[in-house]
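Quick note —
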Amino acid sequence: MTASTLDAPTPGAEPPADTTKVKRAAIASFLGSMLEYYDFYIYASAAALVFGKVFFAKSDPAMGTLLALATFGVAYIARPIGAVLLGHFGDRVGRKRIMLLTLVLMGLSTFLIGCLPTYATVGVIAPILLVVLRVLQGISAAGEQSGANSLTLEHAPFGRRAFFTSWTLTGTQAGFILATVVFLAVSRLSESTLLAWGWRVPFWFSLVVVVLAYVVRRRLEEPEVFQEEQQAHQVAKFPVVELFRTQAADVARVVLCALIAVCSTVFAVFGLAFATSHEVGISKTTMLLVAVSANVLALIMQPSLALLADRIGRKPVFITGVLGCAVMIFVYFQAIMSGNVPLIFLAALLLIGVCYSAPNAIWPSFYAEMFSTKVRFSGIAIGTQIGFAAAGFAPTIAWTLVGDSRTHWLPVALLVAVCCLLAAISATTARETYRVPLTELGKA
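Predicted structure written out below.
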């Protein structure tokens, strides 16, 4: 099937959207998602390596690191709250305005973290300010992808919705790669320089991405389908109430499907700590290169898998990828325990670069197409953020499951596999929507 065939109207379907608008929306979504996950990974790195000494200097080193990592988890508590607030206004006043708000909020919060005074300068005020800015980041993140997915989907031509919306999640891989490169460069500084000012540079650098993304987003237009609802006075007065009154089952479905994110956080956070621990002994450089390689492959695979989903449907691609993750997580940990570096690379490429790329590429369209226009923003935001909250705490749970041996990985793999199975089962109950016109989405 050719691209021209995909762009052609189908009987009963809406006419194709302006491809200039949808390309602009996809680029804006990519840049915003890249900023969000750039922040995610630089904050994680800084919390593990620097913040314990900079913001919790009075504590012993182990406790300082633990407190710093706790500030990382604060964002996951704030995200469901942000989902309700931003979802309400995204469905009331428009996708574009909220996308601009989340971009500025995320960018300024990240930049200001790089400007914070240290504990040595202002005492306990320093960690308090850090937590406040982290909460703002969490609220912003709750609305970023939901707004981007809604706006891109509603601009996309019939038959190409998965492809264009997949660029939102492809931005997450780009953000991870960018953050890793920047922080690796900074980490080469001497420890005194790193603690004095070097750690601030990655946070300041985010301003470049903010400016670029803001320029692109200012040129976006609200989707016609949303404008038509506004003009017809069909916008829900209380979108969240309308959402749970009419589509509560779809919210629950998204929550369970979003558990697939547990695979990502266990791979990126727990997997790194586990493999580089004294008991396992893989070098940090090797594991960072493993993660970067897997995400580089994902940059290629995700748009390709999204094109496949536009041809054969969302469910086959999503479910196959999820079940693949359930199997490959065992292979990945077994490879780590073998100490065979080429095998570790191969297992990571298959797990994240191929299997996880399938649900990661498909969920922006798969979830968004479950909801009608009037509650789409709220539905995606609330459903995903509840599911992602579980993923946020998965590395902590995984570390507890490992126990004192620090090599007993089987319970962790079982945890990921169970989450994958729950996501797959939930996906089987969803409606297949790849050939459903935009105006018919979210209807029985």
